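Many groups now describe folds with learned vocabularies. In that spirit, our science desk offers one protein's residues alongside their backbone shape tokens.
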Amino acid sequence: MIQHVLRLYPAAYRRAHGEEIAATYREMTAGAPLRSRLHEGADLAAHALRMRMGLGSAAPVSRVLAPAYPFALATSAAACGLHLLRWYIGLVSSPTPLWVQLGVDLSGAWGVLLVSSLIVFAGAASALSGRWRVGVPCTVAGLLSFAAAAVVSGPAFGDPVVTPAAMVLMAAVVLACPPDRRLESTAAGRSGVAGAVIALVVVPRAAVDAHAVPWVSTDYGCWPLLVLAATGAALTWHNRSRGVREPGAMVLASPPLLAHACTTVWGGAAAVACLAAALPATAAITLLAGRPGRTGRTTL
């Protein structure tokens, strides 16, 4: 199997490191069960594809993918949380008996969407806690199954084109981040910031939908994106950076929330474009109003 995996590497890289990779693989899998050999082979195949696409740890694009990684997980979980919240509110507010609704909702594409949302939420939480070997495959599998079901489910869980495209893009961002960068990206409190994004998106929306805030009827899709924009601004300020990496990470992580605003709340491309512009604009305003003379840090 290792010879087939090695063919996935670029030719120059395979000539330089192929024998070392094969020897290491054979040493690690000697006497191991088939499951372990397949797991190691899948890891090598993913590494080979990243190298072929120029997504290695030292590649310049990794400097953007690494800070975007935890927030791609966060926005994926938040968007799925909003879908689950919307479904739950419809469930408890309907006069139809609960068991009848569950029998309908848990079948067909709806059932796949609900289960996929739960898988994404659990997988993102696991990956953000550092267990990316379990969390990343679960998150990616949930996003891809959500995208496939959303194509045929109609408008209930979003647009059949925009929503799947956003979920597939997030799966690509999560997968493209090199494994060593994943641990780096979730270290030093960054996973806590990403977790706060999930909470700040879902909890206030739950309060609004539960009519716990009487003076607000709906957020019109603004709140989740404003949370993301504010996070980018806060990180730009905290890192004293030039306002490129942080807004770039937020823009890469924004498609699930943009899709949610576009397809379930706003319904207008112009309004969503204005919300998307808030992501870099907020960071730019923060820089102009802050401390431009201070030297930027390089961490997120």
Q: What stands out?
A: The radius of gyration is 21 Å. Residues 57 and 178 are 6 Å apart (CA to CA). The chain has 14 helices and no strands.
